[in-house]
Amino acid sequence: MDIQALLNRIDETKALIDSHRPLRPEEAKELDAYFRIGTTYSSNALEGNSLTLTETKVLLEDGLTAGGKPLRDCYEAVGHAKAYDFMLETARGDLGFSEDLILRLHGLFYLRLEPEMAGVYRDRQVFITGTEFVPPPAEKVPELMRAFVGELNDVRECAHPVVLAAFAHRKLAGIHPFIDGNGRTARLLMNLILVNSGYQIAIIPPILRGAYINALKMTTRRHNPSDEAFVRLVAECEIETQSDYCRLLGIRPSEKSD
Fold this sequence. Notes:
Elements: H1 3-18, H2 25-46, H3 53-62, H4 71-91, H5 99-110, H6 141-155, H7 161-175, H8 182-196, H9 209-220, H10 228-249
Helix pairs in contact: 1-10, 2-3, 2-4, 4-5, 4-8, 5-8, 6-7, 7-8, 7-10, 9-10
């Protein structure tokens, strides 16, 4: 299935989901909690966090840390959940892209890890293990981020939200503006765009880590860079979340509303 066919399928399912809205308040609350835990677990696990889904759930719901697990892993989970809450609140309002918004996403996630670097652009060169791509020098980051935010605001009305979300993710990951936490911030930004446009959270599961890394590599390779594989991956993850959403609400794909 080509990318346009995937986008068409996503839009058809979105229309079906929209026909069952508005949700009851208790349904919306439970769904928010469900995806908050799943997204926090998956996004952290992609970066090597050792907490299981169950441990993440217990930590976020009951405040209980898992015995034998690094304190940093627990801080990552709590921080991501805080950033996720902000992302969701922001996505459900009038959205304008800004550097401050991206800095806030990173700052909330990273505050418990290294407060002095939370929501602050890096001041030194960083390298990404396992790839030939070298992020731009630190002194170029502010200029690149200004241009990136401007581009997001310029193209948001003409790009499909899934394509825009994938672009925002890969572009932010390419600039790599922070010492650490770039991937998680990029995924939060990606999902902010999706939710603001009425779509579901796109969760990239740990089992797809290899495909995810390879697709990102294709966007920055020296010869014939391409976004196609990455857009496809994000689209497929959106479809999976839509299916999960329908399952949780008992929505059957054959259901149609006049």
